[in-house]
């Protein structure tokens, strides 16, 4: 019947307070959308058919890694880093822009989305999704109080199963250029252009940004120029000329955060490792009463706290930042040494190799080799050609720097 029950299209909004924010401001709360369970069950069934249609028609571009099976952030950042590394090896300037899309999921234009659904999907599936999007309402619940009902006129449903797939379809036709690399993960977008001349690198990038800006205006998507970043990746002293998004000049930075990675100008990973060390110090200070020398927890539970709370912070993306110099790697190794000594309450003169052997904990370098080997085995059989190509690129090796695959044989 191509009909989605209206009673299943009512979402309850719960307001979760942000820590440390004044309670009298609406911006101090994070809205969480709760949908009926039966709605999500039906969405799960529809999602299997929708994703199969998108896969058969190759609707989602290869450069989009968000909300896709077997696609992870590490592989997307690896693509960006590989492009930067090749530019550095060839003595080029790499001009990169990292766009910040404002309220990407909440501002999806319904008429535009329906147009793309009708263009890309079978008619019966289009009618069902049309019924799914229309006449959606929400209300806010705080304690035992309820607000009035309001209609949702834009955006993909928050907290839904179909929302991510609908957003990917809506942004699937983002412009691409032959001389510009595009990397998207949901709404996080990076575009990079490289050339031996810094002016030409920015000109190529600017030409592509003009296409992206026009596409955003046509489909009512807005990116924040002040929150977007322009970075010049090079070993030289000069910067690439500034670029614009529309009429606004994008701020130029020496480092940028993309998908949890801090990318610096010369790709040394020094900034990223230092940020991780600062985060680890902060977390450990709050947990020292559980993991420190005076804690009454058993050794097994102390080690469990470290493996579940602290270790994931520095192992995220270790396949990429593991190519950093030994000096930078030692920053994290020293942190692990201090925590492990506190866990076993070892005196200062205890050898660290004895502590690692006793706890059966690998060093940072050993973790780099192990996880890089697992990562290579995974992307060799990756369904996306852009990811499998990462294993076949042969570095020129002008610079005396490690390649990611060198970590396996160390």
Structural write-up:
The strands form 4 sheets. Strands 1, 2, 4, 5 and 6 form a 5-stranded mixed beta sheet that branches. Strands 7-8-3-9-12 form a 5-stranded mixed beta sheet, sandwiched between helices. The protein has a two-stranded antiparallel sheet with strand order 10-11. The chain is of the alpha+beta class and 410 residues long. The chain is built from 13 helices and 14 strands.
What is the arithmetic mean of pLDDT?
A: 93
Note the run of SSEs as H and E.
EEHHEHHEEEHEEHEEEEEEHHHHHHH
**What's the N-to-C terminus distance?**
61 Å
Number of strands: 14
User: Which segments are poorly predicted (pLDDT under 50) over 5 or more consecutive residues?
Assistant: none
In percent terms, what proportion of residues is strand? 15-25%
Q: What is the CA-based Rg, rounded?
A: 24 Å
Derived structural class: alpha+beta
* Proportion of residues in helical segments: 40-55%
Helix tally? 13
User: Which word captures the global form?
Assistant: globular
* Largest sheet composition: 5 strands, mixed
| Oligomeric nature of the chains | single chain
């Amino acid at each position: 019947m191509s009909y989605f029950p209206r009673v299943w299209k009512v979402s309850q909004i719960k307001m979760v307070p942000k820590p440390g924010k004044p309670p009298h401001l609406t911006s101090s709360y994070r809205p969480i959308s709760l949908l009926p369970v039966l709605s999500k069950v039906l969405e799960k069934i529809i999602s299997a058919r929708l994703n199969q249609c998108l896969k058969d028609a190759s609707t989602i571009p290869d450069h989009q890694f968000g909300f896709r099976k077997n696609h992870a952030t590490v592989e997307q950042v690896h693509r960006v880093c590989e492009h930067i590394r090749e530019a550095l090896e060839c003595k080029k300037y790499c001009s990169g822009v990292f766009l910040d899309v404002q309220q990407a999921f909440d501002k999806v234009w319904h008429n535009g989305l329906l147009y793309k659904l009708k263009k890309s999907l079978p008619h019966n599936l289009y009618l069902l999704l049309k019924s799914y999007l229309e006449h959606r309402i929400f209300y806010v619940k705080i304690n035992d109080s309820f607000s009035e009902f309001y209609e949702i006129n834009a955006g993909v449903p928050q907290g839904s199963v179909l929302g991510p797939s609908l957003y990917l379809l809506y942004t699937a036709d983002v412009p691409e250029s032959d001389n510009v690399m595009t990397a998207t993960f949901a709404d996080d977008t990076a575009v990079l252009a490289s050339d031996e001349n810094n002016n030409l690198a920015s000109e190529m990038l600017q030409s592509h940004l003009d296409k992206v800006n026009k596409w955003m205006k046509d489909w009512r998507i807005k990116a924040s120029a002040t929150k977007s970043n322009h970075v010049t990746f090079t070993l030289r002293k000069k910067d690439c000329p500034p670029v614009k998004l529309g009429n606004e000049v994008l701020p130029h930075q020496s480092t940028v955060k993309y998908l949890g990675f801090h990318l610096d100008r010369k790709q040394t990973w020094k900034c990223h490792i230092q940020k991780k060390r600062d985060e680890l110090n902060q977390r450990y200070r709050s947990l020292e009463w559980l993991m420190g020398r005076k804690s009454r927890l058993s050794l097994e539970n102390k080690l469990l706290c470290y493996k579940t709370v602290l270790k994931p912070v520095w192992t995220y993306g270790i396949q990429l930042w593991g190519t950093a110099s030994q000096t930078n790697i030692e920053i994290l190794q020293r942190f692990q040494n201090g925590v492990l000594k506190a866990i076993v309450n070892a005196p200062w003169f205890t050898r660290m190799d004895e502590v690692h052997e006793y706890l059966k904990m690998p060093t940072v370098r050993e973790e780099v080799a192990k996880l890089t080997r697992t990562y290579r085995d995974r992307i060799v059989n990756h369904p996306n050609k852009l990811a499998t190509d990462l294993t076949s690129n042969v570095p020129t090796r002008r610079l005396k720097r490690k390649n990611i695959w060198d970590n396996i044989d160390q």
